[in-house]
Design a protein that fits this description.
This protein is of the alpha+beta class. Helix content is 21%, strand content 28%. The chain is built from two helices and eight strands. Strands 1-2 form a two-stranded antiparallel ribbon. The protein is globular and about 40 Å long.
Length: 92
C-alpha cells in the first residue's frame, strides 16, 4: 500500500491513496488472501468484521459494519435502528 503514518494529537494516523485503500478493501473481502498468498490471518478478518460488543453493533475493531440491527454515529450516544447504508450490501 502507498501511504505513511503521521501524528495527529495523541493519535498515529495512516494516510493512503484511495487506490491503495480500495485494494485493502478487496483484501478484506477475500478474507486476507491475495491470489494464492495469505496476507492477513483469516481469524483477524473474521474478528474485524463481526461485532464483539453490544454498545455499537455497527462498529468494531476500527471497522464500520453494515447489516446490523442498530448503530451509533461517531461521537454520539444516540442509537439508530436499522443498517447504516440501506442501499449497500449487508456484508459491507
Amino acid at each position: 500500500m502507498d501511504g505513511a503514518w503521521f501524528d495527529s494529537g495523541n493519535n498515529s494516523v495512516y494516510g493512503s491513496t484511495t487506490g491503495s485503500m480500495a485494494l485493502f478493501g478487496l483484501l478484506m473481502l477475500n478474507k486476507g488472501r491475495w491470489e494464492d498468498n495469505v496476507i492477513l490471518n483469516k481469524n483477524y478478518c473474521n474478528a474485524a468484521t463481526t461485532t464483539s460488543q453490544n454498545i455499537n453493533l455497527g462498529y468494531d475493531y476500527l471497522w464500520w459494519l453494515n447489516g446490523k440491527n442498530s448503530y451509533h454515529l461517531p461521537q454520539s450516544q444516540l442509537q439508530f435502528s436499522g443498517i447504516i447504508i440501506t442501499s449497500a450490501p449487508n456484508y459491507m
